[in-house]
Amino acid sequence: CVHAVSPAAERLRYILGEDDDMPTPTLFTEMDTLQHDGDEMEWKESARWVKFEEKVEEGGERWSKPHVSTLTLHSLFELRTCIQTGSVLLDLEGYSLPQIVDDIVDRQVADGLIGPELREKVSFVLLRKHRHQHKKPIHLSLADMGKSNNSPTNPSQSRSMNDISDKPSTDQMKNKFMKKIPRDAEASNVLIGEVDFLDKPFVAFVRLAQATTLGGLTEVPVPTRFLFVLLGPHGKGKSYNEIGRAIATLMVDDLFSDVAYKARDRDDLVAGIDEFLDEVIVLPPGEWDPKIRIEPPKKVPSADMRKSVLNLNELGQVNGTAGGPGGGEDEEMPTPHELGEELQFTGRFCGGLWLDIKRKVPWILSDFSQGFHIQSISAVLFIYLGCITNAITFGGLLGDATDNYQGVMESFLGTALAGTVFCLLGGQPLIILSSTGPILIFEKLLYESNTIDYMELRLWIGLHSCLQCLILVATDASYIIKYITRFTEEGFSSLISFIFISDAIKKMVGSFKYYPINRVFKPDYVTTYRCDCIAPDQAAAMAFNVSVPLADDNMTDLYNLTGLDWSQLSKKECVKYGGALLGNACKYVPDLALISFILFFGTYSMTVSLKKFKTSRYFPTKCRSLVGDFSIIISILVFCGIDYLLGLDTPKLHVPTEVKPTRPDRGWVVMPFGKNPWWVYVASGVPALLVTILIFMDQQISAVIVNRKENKLKKGCGYHLDLFWVGILMAVCSFLGLPWYVAATVISIAHIDSLKMESESSAPGEQPQFLGVREQRLTGILVFVLTGVSIFLAPVLQYIPMPVLYGVFLYMGVASLAGIQFWERIKLYLMPAKHQPDFSFLRHVPLRRVHLFTLVQIICLAVLWTLKSTVAAIIFPVMILGLMVVRKMMDLMFSQHDLAWLDDILPEKDKKKEKDGKKKKDNKRTKAADPLPPPVKIPMDTIGLPSAPDPPSPPSLTVSSPPSLTHLAPRL
Fold this sequence. Notes:
By secondary structure, this protein is of the alpha/beta class. Among the domains are: about 25-50 and about 65-140 and about 170-295, 3-Layer(aba) Sandwich (Mannitol-specific EII, Chain A), CATH 3.40.930.10; about 345-510 and about 650-780 and about 800-820, no CATH class; about 525-580, no CATH class; about 825-905, no CATH class. The chain is about 50% helix and about 10% strand. Strands 1, 2, 3, 4, 5, 6, 7 and 8 form an 8-stranded mixed sheet that branches. Strand 2 (about 40-50) and strand 3 form a beta hairpin. The longest helix has 29 residues, at about 485-515. The protein is elongated. It is a multi-pass membrane protein.
């Protein structure tokens, strides 16, 4: 059934439905209470709100931690009564506090709420000076206490006694709290006090026509837009304070603040309070201690849902021509699978490529200007270290696999060339290019075909693959990427992350093989340990010199060897000259494996800790932010320093020092003809097809992961443009004999993470809002330029221990797993149901179905891992396509509802779902066309409240307001 719209919502629908492009300013609310000290009075700041409540602690000159305001239901009803019975002045022309006070008092007198004889007394109280939390109290010393009785008490002197000026004070301008308040914010001031000359409450709600700076009224130099004044007789202070907290909480509520800005009369304000009461949640008094302060939630629910209920476009016209989301069923739905217009099939030759270029041209200048930020320095250094480590690792493996036809030098130059060109001209410059494992295996298998010249064959494969990539670009083939759902993305990115983690751990385990722990060493027997170098006999010396001549004259060498003092030679020299090592200490190796493990795990742990330090409670926000941004660099420097101070011979980073090919018998340019039969030039198109599939899948899946909507990228992406440049670079690198490059998923994700932006000014207690990523080309270009010139930085880079870089690799692999739903679902296997997090998919999908879906992903990941670890890794790209087939088959195992929450709906299913949705919506509209049932009215006599006639409603509406609660006024 369709729920009836409440009268309050019906009224607010028209208030908030008016076209107004100007957003409502953020409100800073300050509540001041009247303090008495003998005959002297002043307003003392007692609480403040930006989004959450902060109160001045009793007996302490400090603010409380921000917390969620907990209000009594009674205070909200009393506030409603105050608005109904008090003075409401909307769009008051006021430019100073005395003028505003005069207008308020005049209205109260005109309405007969106070007598004319109280005019001066009320004005005297309202114009007392305001002391904020950062100011000192009235009495600074015992001597000052004696002066209080000499203060004038004549109300006629009230105009001269107050210290409220029209200009902000120096204290206000220096207040650091301004950093927590958004720009263009306005203030709402709540004044609560007890006086002895009133016998009933004095209530006024004021909205100024223009926000005005009222000097010292507010603790920060923010112009005031709203004032709420509540003065009453003594004895009801706690009740007044709760009403003040209620109006202050309402003023920072997103929906009520909109109502306060657009209200036309007091009835609109009352309707705003009623809507708030409709949404308020009541806690049983016996099950909750109101003294407990509720911590602000990590994620604050958006007010858009509440506002959408009041939107005319959402709910339709009053006559019921459109349905709305007010149905009885659960309308919460998962985010649909959207990849944007970049993957629309144009049907034109190079249509997608042309659109990518048009999409990127307007951002050319900002692509460079936005890179000039201190955060970019950290990102450049972090990604640079990851890239050179990757280049050295893959370069060394390529050298072993291809007999040094491609080695570390080629890896460095290729990384610099391909990366710089791609970041300068590519469609998504945040993507980092690198060599990958499947490419390495392909190169190894290719080299093992010994009857054909490797470099020439590789050149033609690269040219064919380049041509095939260009054909894919021209035909908009990247369109099929829209069939890659979260299932495939998570499987691919998880595999790459696990590869990084396992490789880092394997490297560390390998160090225990090369530098074994000396288990038999006993400190008490250190005096018996020795190792001597024994000279070889004459025949052995002759044999040694014949086999390894040290100079032209063997007899001279023999004489030199026999004349050596072998006991003074080092271990390396002894072995070099053919001596023999004798003794139980000769095989001793310092525990380099242990210190390497400390460097490895210490780098990882410190990086993780410093990243979390950004959200800790220690030190100022800027300091924490700076430490978080530079966490990886700080960790590397710290453990490089520890290694340098220890002085142990840990394995270090080795960088080539000369620009020349690794293999002396090859040049920098590969000739296309002359070494292989003619048919090789044609037949190489077959293995090139496999390379193209590998390049296409690696590149585009990585691009989809980088461009996912969670990263809030604003400049669009360019799948076709990316593939175009990857294909061109394939041909260039093939001619130069350099490795092939494609998008590196883990390093690209790390690049994204290092450039994430958060809101600078967030309300106290509110988590900084993720704003997006610093989209620019500068960091990527600098990373690859530095990679190219690393040859000249070898004297510095040689001090970096390899275990430290392995720790960086481990961090990159673990960090890229964060936020992957697949990983969160794996952890559910180890949790009892009652301790599982409140994930949205667990609310809508049975747990056994969630586990089944996760199990399918685990099996697919295990198959991919097995293939990756064998020679069959060459068909790895085909298996990625296999993931898409598995996902298609899962439509037979799971309902579309379950898949919508656990994964994404495939495009053709989206269309079907859209049709079903339209039918459903038409049914709702038919039901909504029926006249709405009258709103349910609770008999107020059941709770001891006499019912009152409904206030008049606007002529175009039939609005039945909630009953009046004016009987509560005497209780104030």
